[in-house]
Amino acid sequence: MPEMTYPELKSLVIGEKVHEGRTLYAEIVDSSGPLAAWFNGFIDLLFGRSMLARHVLGFIVLFFQAAFVGITFADKKAFSENTYIPSLIYAILTFFSFDTLSLTPELIGTGFILLSLNNLFKEIEFREQRNESIFNLGLYISIASLFSFSLFIYLPGALLILIVFTRHPPRKYFLLICGFIIPHLLLMSIFYLQDAFSEMWMYYYIPNLGLNATRYLSSGSLWWLGVFPLFFLLVSLFMLNREARLTKYQTQLVQSMFFWMVFSFLHLFFSKDIRPQSFITVIPSMSFFITHALLVVHKKKMAEIGVWVLLITTVCIS
Fold it and tell me: pTM value?
């Protein structure tokens, strides 16, 4: 058996049991999200115990997430010029720790959080206020929470941002909440038909609503891993406040991303295990603000040096 982290071992064991046909929560007592467990069972069917295959797949997921971040920001005109620097920054920041390549529920759930962020931008942009986009916003957050329940925190985050930056009627906020509730109601129906509803409630919802968490690294180690990305973030926020010349729409995006980042940190309070990969939800916001700071630098040579410093310091510390 190759070396692996405890979350990877847990995902592997749960995947094997699901593949064997064991009923989640009734025969497998664990607080993991149902979509995460079923996904692990599918991965076990395809690759067995191969950790290399899981790491390669994790790398591919990170690649597509980085590309999607750049495409989303460019499509929504988030910056003064079209650029894919956010994808580069996202890719660099994902290497702040070795365990970010782990194919865990947080990694897959973050992909759906990015899809929800895209729909949130559509609502703020005012060009597309169809019911589908706000319903999908709640739907994607809900699917993410079925991978890692702590990601539900983005629902009140999205609700707050919409209230502050849009003028939607109460009906649309209700539509957002319906989009979130429907997958959970479907999940409850599935386990009710399997006579495992009470077990699902006891071992999935109740444990995940608590604030207790397992730490796999000390606070000091986490600070060391994040010291340089956090330094670049603080510098970026300072430069953005002083130097940026933004349109009203771009200013709204900056403010909404700041709220989004706050809820990304709040997500950690509900996470069941604290490890470096738990911070991956913060990376989209960090790449957004660092890109803004790089674009306001008048000398492009200095901006290139800043990217290289971020790359070298992040990789060396990790």
Answer: 0.90
